[in-house]
Amino acid sequence: MCLGSTVILSLHNNVKRVKAVVKRYESGLMWIDANSDVINWRTIHPDVVVNRFPRDANASLKLCGHTLAGKSEFDVHYPRAYRVCADKEEHVDRNFVVDYSLTACVSLLRAFVNGDHRAMCSKSGKVPLSALHFAAIKCQQYLTGDISQRASEFSGKGADWETFFEHYHTIVNDQQKFAVPGTGNDVDAALRNMATSTRLIVTRITAVRPQTVMDGYKNVWIVKDTAAGDHHRPVMLNKLGDVLNRCARPGGAANRIVQKYVETPLLRNNIKSDVYVWILLSTLGGRLSVWLHRTCIVQPYAHGFSLNRESAKTGHFERFKSGRLHGMLRLTALIFDLNQLGAKMRRSAKNARKPQQQQRRTKHDHRDNGGKDSDHVHVAVRRSVVSAVNAAVAADIVNLRPNCLELYRSTFVLGDDLKPWLIDIVSDDPCLAADYEERDRLAAPAATRLTRTVVQSVAKMLVDNGRRSQVKSDVVRTDRAVDA
User: Fold this and answer.
1) Distance in angstroms (rounded) separating the CA atoms of residues 35 and 162
2) How far apart, in whole angstroms, are the C-alpha atoms of residue 482 and residue 131?
3) Residue 353: strand, helix, or coil
4) Tens digit of pLDDT for each residue in 348-370?
């Protein structure tokens, strides 16, 4: 039963018979959309199942909001984020300054090692090797020093830090080289020793800071508002002063955060993609369950990937923010089974870099490696979702009601190592845009297929849950009881 206009969706092939049954019996399901009346929770029968979305248009779980920003739960799953403060002199969590300063040091060391120390040095170089020594010393202090002293060691202030940041940006942004006094065996030996010690520091830092793998070299951060709306677009910045100045702007600080940008995404033809995965929160039976829909959508961006400052002006990371699925996806969207995502994305990225004949020659190799990639991505996505939902529930962000369902859409970005990074989770359209226009259907065929599979999966979950049978889906039962 639906409130407002009646819509009948059934897994049964005989639609006429289903309509006759619905007219004769109460279905025990109240399906709410944006135009429905508010439910009287005091009078509703306890056995009636309700879908309680949407709370607000495109409402967020606030995973990137103030409540959860900086929490350790997201060190593995979620790009680190820090709060913007409205009434403090710093305007932003001082841990961000520590993070930015340390990331700059690590990035310079990685650029020196990964770029080949010989190619990074020249007699006509613009940056003295003292910048590299400064970064190495700071990284050693981070590895061996007292945690309580990091705020002072990585303050990002003073003449030493200002000089280092200037040298750092000259290397990574202006693509200049380090200056060496000359050539010869002694210089080569000194550079080799420096490269060896630098590589060791980078290895140790990467071991204690897992997110180093997606940091890249440019130290790019996003200042964004968690509030929805076209005027709340994120801003991509890579200089500390620019970030702090942006955070100091009046208005909206309560909904504003600074978040690390994933600089090493998996690319196909230099195109980055978002991965959309659907989540269903269920409180049936008095317990919270997290259901992960096995079909996902891969949405390539409309433009090439770039970390240059100009990319921020052209909307490099700009997404469609429509709450309706069909208004969000483009014609280029692809639909995959989640357990095949890793293999297909890896194969697609590799094939885009190979000649056609080489693609055919290596097809068998990709098939052999597909299982490992698939398992890795599928399990990682699942862990990310469960971690995020549990953290949101523990922080009392999600107001759970008994015997309810709520549909969410999560966004992931895959790293070039196939590591999925959770970007956000928002509530999806309760009707899954059932009234989309013909032009929208033709523009996004993947959305039409996805809509059908999600609706069928929700219905099947309800039926199987009522039979108390083993559900053939990704479901995680938590230990959290849901009070009436």
Assistant:
1) 56
2) 56
3) coil
4) 776 655 544 443 443 334 444 44
